[in-house]
Every structure is written in structure tokens, then in C-alpha cells.
Amino acid sequence: MKNLEIPLLRRSLIAFVAVALTACTTSSIDPQSKASIGLVYVEPVQLSKATVFAPNLSEANESSGKVPATVAEATSRLQEVVDTRTNLRELIESQAKEDLIAKGYRLTDAASGASATLKINVYHALSVPIGDGRGIAMTVSAEMVRSSDGKRLMFAGASQIKDSEAKGVRVAPYAEWFTNDDFVVEQYRLVARLLTAQALAGL
User: At how many degrees (to 10) do helices 181-199 and 88-102 cross?
Assistant: First the structure.
């Protein structure tokens, strides 16, 4: 199996992630700013629509009759599984709150009473072909913004998973992503958890 930490997988995101992630400097919150924060509000996670890159000739031949016939249908199918079974928004939001509490922050459910807001954006796709399979291409970006003046206190993004194979991240044949929903759900949730943890490491 191929490790997901390779340029092809990262480049899979370029087609649909025209965000400021590459233009911003990844940073950690400084101790003084952290000490000044009273309550933190975690905004609802912003999750992109799924993207599927078209199968190459080999994949198309191997998958004939097993998967959606068009890229649009494949994208719709993947989106349906993400929407109905992964609970990605809730998973990431819950993990973010747990991480904040573990790092000593206090949370509030009301944006109006917060001294800072944590914003999380997630972009995801089924990657371009990597060897004999595909993986999940995902970027999780997070920023902490001070409520009083809108100043960004921390910004970080994660799209590479360290030691991905050892942590259970897998590459699978194109057809498996459309015939094995349990595998899709497992991989999506795993990748999201790992990248969220990396993106929030600087809090």
C-alpha cells in the first residue's frame, strides 16, 4: 500500500481548495494571548462538498458496471455517504471542544459571550489515482479569532497525516470507494480525526 504522504495526494486538493491556507503562516497561539482568553465559542464546522477525480482508463475498465457511470454520479454517491453516515461536522466539532478543554480553555455555547472564536474549515475529495488505488484528500484549517477586534490569534492547517499507514489510513481501488460504504465511513472519520488533531496542536 502507498503512504498518503506523497505529493499526488496533496495535489488532489488544488483543484477545489483555492483558500488562503497556502498564503498564511501556520502559527501557534502565544501564552499571553491564551491567558487573556475568557470563553471560547466553537463555530459550526464548515464542510466543503465532495469532489471525485475522474477514473483513469485502467480504473474505468476494472470498475465497469460496479460504480457510478459518470463523475457527477460518483460525486453525488460519495456526498450522500458523507452526509448521511460520517457525521463529520459533529465529529470534528466534538473533537475540537475536547481538545480545547484539555488545553485549559473554557467554552461557551453563545457567540455573544465569547472572548474568542474557533473557526474550522474542512475540504475533502477522493484523491487522484495513487499507484493501484485512491485515498482521501483532506485539508483541515483552524483559526482562533479574538472577538473584541477580530485579530487572528492562531492559524493552522493540516493536509498530511504523519505515519499515516501505521495509523490505519488506507489506499483502496477506485471501485471500493463506491461499493463498501463501511470502509468509506471508517476512513473518512479516521482521516478527519487525525487531521483535526494536527490542525489544533498549536492551541
Answer: 30
Residue 174's closest CA among 72, 14, 62?
62
37: nearest Cα among 99, 98, 103: 103
- State the pTM of this model: 0.86
pLDDT, tens only, 118-130: 999 999 999 988 8
Residue 84 burial (CB count, 10 A): 10
In this structure, are residues 137 and 170 in contact, taking their beta carbons and an 8 Å threshold? no
pLDDT in tens, 2-11: 444 344 444 4
d(CA 68, CA 177): 11
Q: In this structure, how many other beta carbons lie within 10 angstroms of the beta carbon of residue 25?
A: 6
- Sequence-ordered strand ranges (E) for 8-62: 39-42, 46-47
- Is the separation of the CB atoms in 27 and 201 below 8 Å? no
The CA distances from residue 145 to 15, 73, 109, in Å, are 28, 38, 16
- Evaluate whether 155 touches 53 at the Cβ level (below 8 Å): no
Residue 158: which of 4, 52, 36, 3 has the closest Cα?
Answer: 4
**Among candidate residues 137, 169, 172, the one with its CA nearest the CA of residue 59:** 172
What is d(CA 121, CA 113) in angstroms, rounded to the nearest whole number? 22
What is residue 166's three-state secondary structure? helix
Bridge partners for 142 per DSSP: 120, 156
